[in-house]
Amino acid sequence: PVILEMGHHPRDDWWMGHYVVVSGYDDAWGRFITQDSLVMADFPVPYEEVAERWWRDFNYLYLVIYPPEREAQLLELLGSHAGAEFSLSHALQVASQEVQVLQGRDLFFAWYNKGSSLAALGQFGPAAEAYDQAFTLYQALPEEQRPWRVGWYQTGPYQAYYHSGRYQDVIQLANTTLSVFEKPPLEEALYWRGLARAASGDREGAI
C-alpha cells in the first residue's frame, strides 16, 4: 500500500493534515480505493480529486510500505523516483509550473511547496522568497479558506528563514503558530524559536 499525506476539510472547521492509505485503484471508474480513518473503509476517491486537490497540500508526499523481499521490484517500478534528490527536484519542477497557472488557495500551496522543495534541496534563500510569496497570498485568502494549521505540520519555512539569517521572521512565525494554544504543544515551533533567539543573542529567551 501507499500512504499519502494530504489535506482534509472537516465540515465544522477549515483544513487539517491527514494520512490516507491507498489500497487499490479502478481505472474503469477513475478512482482510487482508500482507507480513510476520518471517513470510511474502502472509500473511493476520483483520481483528479486526490492529485489536484488535497494531495497538493503536502507537496505530493507519499510513503510506500513493502516487505524487504520485494525491494528490488519496488525500486524497478519507481525508477529514478526512488532517489530523494530526483524526487525533490521533480517536486520543485511541478510546483514551479503550478505557480504559473493556479489561483487562490491552490496557488498558496504551490508557492509553499516550491519553498519546501527548495529548502529540502538546501537552497534556503530562494526557499525563503517562495515562502514569502505563499504567506502574502495567505493573507489575501478569505478567512474560511486559510489553512491556518499548516505550520503544525510543515517546518520548511523555519529552516529557510533561519538558514537565510532571518531570525526575527522565524520568531514571528513561531509566535503566530503557537498563539492559538493556551499551552504550546508544538515542539518544532518551540525548537526553531529557541534557535532563532540564540542566534539573535537572546540566550535567556532561547533557554
Order of helices and strands: EEEEHEHHHHHHHHH
Classify the secondary structure makeup into a structural class. Answer: alpha+beta
Distance between the termini: 43 Å
Shape: globular
Arithmetic mean of pLDDT: 93
* Rounded radius of gyration (Å): 18 Å
Sheet having the most strands: 5 strands, antiparallel
**Helix content range:** 40-55%
The main sheet orders its strands as 4-3-2-1-5
Q: Unreliable stretches, pLDDT < 50, 5 or more residues?
A: none
Strand content: 15-25%
Number of helices: 10
Count of strand segments: 5
Word description of this protein:
Helix 3 packs antiparallel against helix 4 and helix 4 packs across helix 7 (156-163). The protein is of the alpha+beta class. The protein has a 5-stranded antiparallel β-sheet with strand order 4-3-2-1-5, covered by helices on one side. 51% of the residues lie in helices and 16% in strands. It starts with a strand and ends with a helix. The protein has helices spanning 47-54, 71-78, 84-98, 104-120, 124-140, 150-153, 156-163, 167-178, 187-199, 203-206; strands at 2-8, 16-26, 31-36, 40-46, 62-64. It has 10 helices and 5 strands.
List the defining traits of the structure above.
207 residues, globular
Summarize the structure.
The protein is 51% helix and 16% strand. It is built from 10 helices and 5 strands, in the order ββββαβααααααααα. It has a 5-stranded antiparallel beta sheet with strand order 4-3-2-1-5, covered by helices on one side.
